[in-house]
TrEMBL record:
This is RNA polymerase sigma-70 factor (ECF subfamily). One of its GO terms (biological process) is DNA-templated transcription initiation. It comes from Leeuwenhoekiella aestuarii. Residues 14-79 form the RNA polymerase sigma-70 region domain. The keyword Protein biosynthesis does not apply. Signal peptide: none annotated. Belongs to the sigma-70 factor family. ECF subfamily. InterPro entries: RNA_pol_sigma-70-like (IPR039425), RNA_pol_sigma-70_dom (IPR014284), RNA_pol_sigma70_r2 (IPR007627), RNA_pol_sigma70_r4_t2 (IPR013249), RNA_pol_sigma_r2 (IPR013325), RNA_pol_sigma_r3/r4-like (IPR013324), WH-like_DNA-bd_sf (IPR036388).
Length: 164
């Protein structure tokens, strides 16, 4: 890759790496898997960057590559042996001063989101990132109307999963 192009890529990635971390959190259950997925997404972004034409915003393109990479690896991992998540069995001492209500609610929300299919997960993620439906539809390759309809259905699924 051209050194100037490489410098642009690194600058863009550094400025927007939280996008990749959020996707990793959605598709992984532990820090090691998170790190592996982050690395794989970064590699795929690096490989694809010379083909980035700027037809969309860099972040929209980044979402698309990152989500596609995460979904592909997630599907492959479903074929492997299921192991117990370390954090779910780790003994924790609750502090009497610390109110973990919000943290527990977030864990429940992520658990519910993980039960959705790959496209619905990506849709919820982009929705929670406050992306407009026009950008969501472009990122996922669906129509804006379809994105809205799917989101309404997913909200219903999440309510059912969360017993709200």
């Amino acid at each position: 890759m051209d050194p100037q192009l490489e410098k642009q890529f690194v600058t863009q990635l550094e400025a927007n790496q939280n996008i990749v971390h959020k996707i990793c959190r959605l598709y992984t259950h532990d820090q090691e898997s998170h790190n592996d997925l982050f690395q794989e997404i970064t590699i795929q972004l690096f490989k694809a960057y010379p083909k980035f034409r700027g037809d969309s915003k860099f972040t929209t393109w980044m979402y698309r590559v990152a989500l596609n990479t995460a979904i592909t690896l997630y599907r492959k991992s479903k074929r492997s042996i299921k192991t117990q998540d370390y954090e779910s069995v780790m003994f924790k001492i609750a502090s009497t001063e610390y109110d973990n209500t919000v943290e527990e609610q977030l864990k429940l929300m992520y658990k519910a989101i993980r039960q959705l299919n790959d496209i619905d997960k990506a849709l919820v993620f982009l929705y929670l990132e406050d992306k407009p439906y026009s950008e969501i539809s472009e990122t996922l390759g669906i129509t804006e109307v379809n994105a809205r309809v799917k989101m309404n259905r997913v909200k219903g699924k999440l309510k059912d999963l969360l017993n709200v």
